[in-house]
Amino acid sequence: MKTLALLLTALLPVTDAAILPPTQSVLVSQSIAYQPQKSSVPMKNQATQIVTRFLKAVQTGDQATLAAALHDGITWNQPGNNAFSGVKRSKTDVFQMVGGMFSLTEDTMRLTNIKVVAENGNEIACLLHWTAARPTGEVLDVDNIDVYTVKDGQIVNAQVFSADIDQENRFWVR
């Protein structure tokens, strides 16, 4: 054991080995010696790739990619108590909702930041930042957490959570 401690201590930079007692040097040395290599970038799972591609298409207005990403029978739950709230049960309903949002904002609605994309199997949670302005001067500036479920290469469910539902309700009046 003493030989192992000397060998591992020798692997540390001189300054680290000099300030730590031998027993701590061994513990630190072992954790340093066995750290996994970070030379390869982990592959994203398929659900993450599909949702990321969908969100990029939202940002660029790529209608073909948007249509391909959403399942025809998607369930989309939009939060709040406003003109666009409630459950949509088809891709057509989702596109009608979004079209109404763009119409109300005279095409100013933007997904300005995809802050976080986190995965749990086929469920992908995203922290997103949205902005929009209405011709009357009202402004929307809000974070949402969207949770998407992917099955067979398409988004089959979307659950949207608003960080400021009161702001959204005022902006998207009934």
Detail the topology: elements first, then pairings.
Layout: H1 2-11, H2 14-19, H3 22-33, H4 46-60, H5 63-69, E1 70-78, E2 86-88, H6 91-104, E3 110-120, E4 123-133, E5 139-151, E6 154-162, H7 165-171
Parallel strand pairs: 1-6
Antiparallel strand pairs: 1-2, 3-4, 4-5, 5-6
Helix pairs in contact: 1-3, 4-5
Describe the structure.
- With 174 residues, the protein is an alpha+beta fold.
- 41% of the residues lie in helices and 32% in strands.
- It contains seven helices and six strands, in the order H-H-H-H-H-E-E-H-E-E-E-E-H.
- It has a six-stranded mixed beta sheet with strand order 2-1-6-5-4-3.
- It is globular.
- The termini are far apart.
- Mean pLDDT is 83; it is low at 1-41.
Mean pLDDT over all positions: 83
Give the tally of structural domains.
2
What is the global morphology?
globular
**Biggest sheet, spatial arrangement of strands:** 2-1-6-5-4-3
Terminal-residue CA separation: 74 Å
Topology as a string of helices (H) and strands (E): HHHHHEEHEEEEH
Please count the helical segments.
7
Number of strands: 6
Rounded to an integer, what's the Rg over CA atoms? 25 Å
Write the CATH architecture name of the largest domain.
Answer: Roll
Strand-residue fraction? Answer: 25-35%
The largest β sheet comes out as: 6 strands, mixed
Helix content: 40-55%
Please identify the top-level CATH class of the largest domain. Answer: Alpha Beta
